[in-house]
């Protein structure tokens, strides 16, 4: 009787321990957490995402210890070749055959939108890190996706309001004729008009344009104070380089809505100097960003940009959610990620909204002149930090069908 009483007492005491409330067996599918990085490895966005995105994910997994709740974390990667059909085919294979739980990066908006639909149908998670179309968290939102790094509204708000406040109130757009470019021009134009500025003209170009001469001449002839490049990757680099050759930046300000530090490095400060751009992170911002950048540079021989920092942040938040819920089930993990602020080395107080948009601060930078740079990759002057609630469109304006209406 005494032994039985003691056993009952011990059982009651053990039940009060935190881990005693967890399921007896871990609810992790296939006994492994599997992450897929689907990105551009060979095309116009590969320099700014690609292998750098894969490395950032590996660093996040390594820093987490390589396991979560005793379960191995595996990483796979593939090149979607900037084709929506290729991206969705890889996603289906990963989900159906390989047991991938999460697909991240998805640079190129058409690829992102396609893969998001596949993931929703398969009840798996996507993180859009390299694409900025506002459709991703508006008309085409899903409850299994997070748009993590930026959207075109946030980049437009960060740049436009600051520049109009400096008297740069007339704008001409050179726009890539696909979802990202169209979204950028539309969002920025609305903000320009609301802030008292004026769009004096625009011209569209196809993806992978090599010769911007005719477009730049139209922008120059417009007399606009600002020439806005609603493009990314190689398109943005080519346009910036040729704008310098035409001497446009001597009298007009150049804005790169999706330019990142790797673009600036490739162009050189003499060509890119004084240009305005926005990023979520800058490698030289503080001790934590510099420490991460040093490790990243050791492997990649280049500094990380906002997509690489965001990858590390997103994967870390995802693993924390699995750790907290003891499962990789999509619904439970998504709920946990929304319930807890995004707090890590690079993000403090980030919030994942019901429309799938992760809201955080944004930064307006201006590219230094050559004589201002003191050491390699010392390229930016911070002009303004914009709180997330100001940078991103309010939830009340969301067109996402998942958002509750009054």
Q: Could you list the spans in which at least 5 consecutive residues all have pLDDT below 50?
A: 1-26
CATH topology name of the largest domain: Rossmann fold
Mean pLDDT: 91
Query: How many discrete structural domains?
Result: 2
Morphology: globular
Helical residue percent band = 40-55%
State the CATH superfamily name of the largest domain.
Answer: Response regulator
CATH class of the largest domain: Alpha Beta
- What's the β-strand tally? 15
Class based on secondary structure composition and strand pairing? alpha/beta
Overall CATH architecture of the largest domain:
3-Layer(aba) Sandwich
Biggest beta sheet summary: 7 strands, mixed
**Spatial arrangement of strands, main beta sheet:** 8-7-9-10-11-14-15
Please compute the radius of gyration using only Cα atoms: 23 Å
Number of H/I helices: 14
Describe the model.
With 406 residues, the chain is an alpha/beta fold. The protein folds into two domains: 30-150 and 286-352, 3-Layer(aba) Sandwich (Rossmann fold), CATH 3.40.50.2300; 153-279 and 362-384, Rossmann fold (3-Layer(aba) Sandwich), CATH 3.40.50. The protein has 14 helices and 15 strands. It has helices at 2-15, 50-64, 84-98, 109-122, 152-165, 179-194, 213-222, 233-246, 261-267, 269-272, 287-300, 306-325, 330-339, 388-391, and strands spanning 32-39, 67-68, 71-79, 102-105, 125-128, 145-147, 170-176, 198-205, 226-230, 253-256, 276-279, 351-352, 358-359, 362-367, 380-386. The chain has a seven-stranded mixed beta sheet with strand order 8-7-9-10-11-14-15, with helices on both faces. Strands 2-3-1-4-5-6 form a six-stranded mixed beta sheet, sandwiched between helices. The longest helix is centred in the C-terminal third of the chain and has 20 residues, at 306-325. It is globular. Residues 1-26 have low confidence and may be disordered.
């Amino acid at each position: 009787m005494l032994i039985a009483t003691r056993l009952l007492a011990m059982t009651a005491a053990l039940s009060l321990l935190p881990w005693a409330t967890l399921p007896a067996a871990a609810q992790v599918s296939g006994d492994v957490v599997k992450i897929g990085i689907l990105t551009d490895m060979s095309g116009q966005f590969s320099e700014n995402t690609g292998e750098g995105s894969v490395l950032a994910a590996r660093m996040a997994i390594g820093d987490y210890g390589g396991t979560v709740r005793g379960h191995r974390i595996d990483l796979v990667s593939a090149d979607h070749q900037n084709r929506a059909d290729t991206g969705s085919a890889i996603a289906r294979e990963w989900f159906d055959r390989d047991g991938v739980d999460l697909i991240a990066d998805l640079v190129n908006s058409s690829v992102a939108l396609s893969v998001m639909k596949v993931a929703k149908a398969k009840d798996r998670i996507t993180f859009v890190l390299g694409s900025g179309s506002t459709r991703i968290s508006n008309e085409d939102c899903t409850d299994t996706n997070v748009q993590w790094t930026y959207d075109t509204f946030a980049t437009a708000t960060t740049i436009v309001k600051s520049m109009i406040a400096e008297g740069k109130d007339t704008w001409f757009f050179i726009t890539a004729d696909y979802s990202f470019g169209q979204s950028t021009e539309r969002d920025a134009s609305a903000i320009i008009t609301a802030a008292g500025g004026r769009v004096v003209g625009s011209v569209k170009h196809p993806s992978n344009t090599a010769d911007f001469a005719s477009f730049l001449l139209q922008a120059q002839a417009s007399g606009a104070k600002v020439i806005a490049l609603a493009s990314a990757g190689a398109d943005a680099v080519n346009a910036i380089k040729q704008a310098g050759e035409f001497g446009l930046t001597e009298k007009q300000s150049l804005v790169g809505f999706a330019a990142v530090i790797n673009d600036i490095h490739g162009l050189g400060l003499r060509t890119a100097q004084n240009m305005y751009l926005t990023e979520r992170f800058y490698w030289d911002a503080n001790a934590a960003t510099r420490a991460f950048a040093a490790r990243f540079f050791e492997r990649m021989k280049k500094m990380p940009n906002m997509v690489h920092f965001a990858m590390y942040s997103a994967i870390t938040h995802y693993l924390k959610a699995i750790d907290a819920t003891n499962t990789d089930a999509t619904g439970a993990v998504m709920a946990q990620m929304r319930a807890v602020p995004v707090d890590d080395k690079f993000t403090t107080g980030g919030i994942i909204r019901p429309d799938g948009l992760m809201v955080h601060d944004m930064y307006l930078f201006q590219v230094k002149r050559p004589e201002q740079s003191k050491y390699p990759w010392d390229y930016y002057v911070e002009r303004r930090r914009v709180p997330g609630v100001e940078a991103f469109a309010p939830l009340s304006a969301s067109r996402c069908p998942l958002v509750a209406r009054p």
